[in-house]
Sigma-70 family RNA polymerase sigma factor
Amino acid sequence: MVFIIEELIKRAKGGDSSAVDEIIQKFSCFVIKQAAKYRIPSYEFDDLVQHGYLSIIRAIHLYKMGNCSFTTYCNSAVINNFKALLKGEIKHLREIQDDSIIDLKEHDFTLEDEVIAYDEAQKVRKALDKLQGIEKDIIEAVYIKGKTLKEAAADFNIKYRIAIEIKKEALNELRKYLK
């Protein structure tokens, strides 16, 4: 697994956009889970997912081969970027008045990066739309509305243990749709 990721990173750093897509795919469930934890004014769930994908792209570009595990590095980058977004430390480029304030060279996103992140967020939305009935309701309640699984089970008048199984099955379905 480590060898596969390292090889994908080499290809991605060399400009292979399909390698970037594969890396994003490997971390998409993690990004969705992290995005569901945050409630940030003026950001929808899809915006947060897209921000998570941009964090992965940035991690690919900043990662130094062989220094540490990319999985750990990428997970930390996604979490830290969500926290920074929440604190208001990350601003969209259109909001920056003076470009000389910060060095954008290493952190500048290309249009291609933005498009990739947007496409991945759209794939997540389409995958969610494919879920039916209680599976979709449970996933939306937990990951989009921010309820605990226990609260969602009570809302839908089902036992907690059944809610666990429904959530597990729904996440498996989402993984299949996202591949």
